[in-house]
Amino acid sequence: MTGQIHSLLARSLLAPRSVAFVGVSAKGGAGNKMLNSALRSGFEGKIWPVNANASEIAGVPCVPSLNALPAVPDCIVISVPAEGVLALVKEAASIGVRAALVVSEGFADAGTPEGRERQERLQAIARASGMAIAGPNCMGIATLAHRFAATMADIPAKLDAGGISLVSQSGGLLNAVAELSANRGIGMNYLISIGNQAVLDLADYIDFLADDPKTSVIACIMEGAKDGRRFRAAVERASRVKPLVILKLGQSTAGQAATFAHTGTLAGRHEAYEALFRANGVAAASSLDELVETAALLATAPLPAGDRVCLLTVSGGATSLIGDLGERAGVTFGRIDEETSRRVGEALGVLRDFGNPLDTVGMPRLRQEGAIEGVVGALLDTAEIDVIGLVLGMRLEGAENHERLVGRMAEIARTASKPLLALSFISNSLTAHWRGYAREKGLPLVEDIELGLRAIRHLTDYAAFRHNMSTRREPPQTRPAPGNVSAAVALSEAESKRIVGRAGLPITREYLAATPKEAKVLAEKIGGRVALKIQSRDIPHKSDVGGVHLGATVDDTEMMSQKILTNAKTACPKAAIDGILVQEMVGEGAEFIIGMTYDEQFGPLVVVGGGGVMVEVFKDASVGLAPLTRQQATEMVARLKISVQLDGFRGAPPLDREALIDCLVAFSNFVASTDGQFAAIDLNPVFVRTQGRGVKIADALIITSSLWEEDNEQTEPHYAVS
């Protein structure tokens, strides 16, 4: 985003000093609601309703037209029918207005050619004038810190200003977040409804909020990105300075034309968003409540040094529940070592071994003078714990026991070297007595045991991302979009192997034979048993037509080559046959797949998973956005169920995990550097052999895009795998 747009967002649109409202009427309607929201917000700037047929509305004097305004407003709010919007925006631009908020419907949202054309004309006006335009078809904006609102959303009067800013594609869900936050006393900064994103899109707002000093957490409710590359860049930049919590609505399939490739069934748009969020420490919320609880925790808790959590409670049964739900949420419970256990017992006056979650053996023991200080002090001193939480069934109207314990936790938190928090078992328990406690006392509070545990996991994940930022590469530059994927060509295995082999990836030793007799000569050259495979661009899945024979000896190579040639011609009589690939046999190892499918929004999606013929049955795969860091590749492999084979399964020797990771990183560099040339790539199977023996790519399928050129061969040395 340019500095000019940043300035327009900050001064003219989100925190204006003067606003003109066009489309207001004393009879009511959207314009009237927008005007009244500004009046209720306590806005101290100039407000001008524009109406030629009224002297005043809601007690505010009207002006008959934009040209009659006593001064040029920072922002104009437009609530007129769609056919009147463009003329108003042009007029506003002509008098020097720098920002507009268009509430009106009837643009691209209408789904008609007329609506799409109207939106394109609005974009053209914005480009020509340099105007920052929010919407159209949006519910408006509220800036609590600036005491300004121009919105149809129902902003609760009790909603306080704070550090969480929300950008939402859904006006109705924005309403719900505002209500939830107000009930919990969670402070909000900006509430932004973005509508059609004709000019300013989600990436623009994220980019702006990354630099906004009054925003500590960026929360988003999104259906999809207008420009995946820009959205990715904005997320990658923002996450390096402050946490993001995103509720992504809806899922979609990959929509790839490259139907021959397995990778298209393993990675789609939903997996692309997941990969982007995971790689950048973004908290991916699954509900509005999780969005709010996670944002509240991230806004108040310091980042821990690690992910090891200790949760203490006064109920033995509760420890079991916490343990079960914590495991489901992915929370890591740290070890309670012998010395820490001794000190905890000493503080509570009981001799026993303590586990984690930590049962404090009842409320009376924890309430003793100095008990909670002793327990928490022991946990603060051990290197095995990074986050400490007190879990209670906190009551809506408060309770004396809870008040004392939580208050003492708040006192300890003032000087603690690790994050401390309190978690209530019960939903909606922090909306009365405890409302706003976290902001007032500085002790993070979360409610609902499941949501709270997920929020804690999001906190530790983001902390890990921030700690590891130095190992992560800068966001990649935006690259050209692919050509027409419908013009794609599926290359033969030999052609595909030549491309990835020259990129430095470890392919099997192999030769292409024109005849069965030549295949025998080449088999003698390779030595030992060989694999024989029919080669044709028209037969991408060779085994389906009997076009593969494994383990041929030199003596039977000619006969088996003739057999697979006959099978292929019988099954696919119109196929253009290139010949027979004679390939060394890989004698041992686990089968993996490494692949790429091209997403028109995000570019190359890299896939690693369990390979072989059952790849689409088990769909054990991890997805990442190219290029991958080594750490990201390592995490992708670790998430696979099949990864247990790498460590030596049932007495088998360990396999070469590091070589697989090397290959995955090199492949991701290759597909990033050839961005747009290929629609999909399958390397399947990739045999991961005994530790120290590396990996071998036994088969490959490349599906090109129309940008690929037949003679384009990548040879850059940084792809190479040793």
UniProtKB/TrEMBL annotation:
Gene3D superfamilies: ATP-grasp fold, A domain, ATP-grasp fold, B domain, NAD(P)-binding Rossmann-like Domain, Succinyl-CoA synthetase domains. GO terms for biological process: tricarboxylic acid cycle. Keywords: ATP-binding, Ligase, Nucleotide-binding, Tricarboxylic acid cycle. SMART domains: CoA_binding. It comes from the Bacteria. The keyword ATP-binding applies. InterPro entries: Acyl-CoA_Synth/Transferase (IPR051538), ATP_grasp_subdomain_1 (IPR013815), CoA-bd (IPR003781), NAD(P)-bd_dom_sf (IPR036291), Succ_CoA_lig_flav_dom (IPR032875), Succinyl-CoA_synth-like (IPR016102). One of its GO terms (molecular function) is ligase activity. PANTHER family: 3-HYDROXYPROPIONATE--COA LIGASE [ADP-FORMING], ACETATE--COA LIGASE [ADP-FORMING]. In the N-terminal section; belongs to the acetate CoA ligase alpha subunit family. This is Acetate--CoA ligase family protein. It comes from Sinorhizobium mexicanum.
